[in-house]
Amino acid sequence: MPQLARRMGQAKPSAIMVIAEKTRALKAQGRDIISFSIGVPNFLPGEHVYAAARAALEKDSGQYGSNRGADALLDAMLAHFERNGIAGLTRRNLCVGIGAKQVLYNLAEALLDPGDTIAFPTPFWTTYADIAAIVGAKTLLLPCPPEQDYKLTPAQLDAALAQKPKVFLFNNPSNPTGMVYHREEIAALAAVMARHADTWIVLDDIYNRMVFDEVGYHNVLAFEPSLRDRTIVVDSLSKTYGMPGWRVGFAAAPEHVAQAMVTLNSNHITSLPEVVSAAAAAALAGPQDIPAAQCAGFARKRDVVLAALAQIPGVRCPRPEGAFYAFPDVSVAFGRTHGPSGRLIGNDVELCEALLESAGVACVPGSAFGEPRALRISYACPDAALAEGLARIQKFFAEFE
Ligand SMILES: Cc1ncc(COP(=O)(O)O)c(C=O)c1O
């Protein structure tokens, strides 16, 4: 019997998708489930995006496009990076992908040989570990527990980079914690990165337009321009513009890295569809009022989530300042019995299962992100569902014996 390739022994389906499947199955049985599990932005792009897509459809050539990305889209990306403080790039520094996920996959293939090490802080977005496993890279995890607000310290980074990992992957604002590094924190991390010249720096900054409390989005390149030669900035339209299903991700990189991704695209995906490219260019270059309004809305919802969690004894939630996630430490429930279901809760997975089955609220266990004391609440849902889901969570925790 022929076998699957050895690399598939390492790969597993995304834990977030597993919860989403379970939620869908319960919903199909007619159960009333509130989903705080999947990271979808829950709003639609502006009319100008659809108009651009319709216009492109009218004159769609039906041909393959550029492996790097359509010119108009690349130019919109250049302007976008410039607005984010990353100036001086040219089209040759850019490359698109089918979402940031494929861009990250391309980067893993372009930068990591089997046995190389990729370092990243925990909690981490689940896919990082899975992509590393598929390309046969070792992972060096840098634990950032709730006691340090889930943030990496310069000393931790220094110790990690001293081990010369091939790649350091940094996500800011963070999925799953919603934490955002402040200006001085980024400056301190940048200084450490500059001291360790043997490591590629990959910045997954796809939530850069979702930062609250006037903290602002900051980027190591602004503090250490010397990092330009070995830093790749990954971005995406999925969350910012309410376009997850359009599948547009992109990266700014040193020319030869961008070219490597273009080569991989030429063998993996060829190009983005013309209609998608036109819509993406319109989103990036057009009015930014929808992302701005959504960001303000998420900040308001964040306050609602924190206020509700603060009322649950023993649950502690470092204050998120971006994205649309909260990541409370719920370990207070471990080792205790949930009265109505009679379930003894041993860990985060059992807690999320009990919460889903008894209270009808879907959250993702923190262990999926490398922090088993927590669970992730994705709060990008309508206000009424958010209030109901939070009330159910409060009731669920009050029912412990
Ligand atoms: C931190 C982070 N990076 C990358 C992605 C991938 O985004 P997409 O492939 O939709 O562009 C996600 C999606 O949830 C994410 O949270």
Summarize the structure.
This protein is an alpha/beta fold. It is 41% helix and 13% strand. It folds into two domains: 7-44 and 290-398, Aspartate Aminotransferase, domain 1, CATH 3.90.1150; 61-285, Aspartate Aminotransferase, domain 2.
Describe the structure.
With 401 residues, the chain is an alpha/beta fold. The protein has 2 domains: 7-44 and 290-398, Aspartate Aminotransferase, domain 1 (Alpha-Beta Complex), CATH 3.90.1150; 61-285, Type I PLP-dependent aspartate aminotransferase-like (Major domain) (Aspartate Aminotransferase, domain 2). Helices cover 41% and strands 13% of the residues. The protein contains 14 helices and 14 strands. It has a 7-stranded mixed sheet, sandwiched between helices. A 3-stranded antiparallel sheet has the order 9-14-13. The protein has a two-stranded parallel sheet with strand order 1-12. Helix 3 packs antiparallel against helix 11 and helix 7 (154-161) packs parallel to helix 8. The model has no long low-confidence stretch (mean pLDDT 95). Bound molecules: pyridoxal-5'-phosphate. Residues 39, 99-101, 125, 171, 175, 204, 206, 236, 238, 244, 249 line the site of pyridoxal-5'-phosphate (PLP). The site of pyridoxal-5'-phosphate has 13 residues, from helix 5.
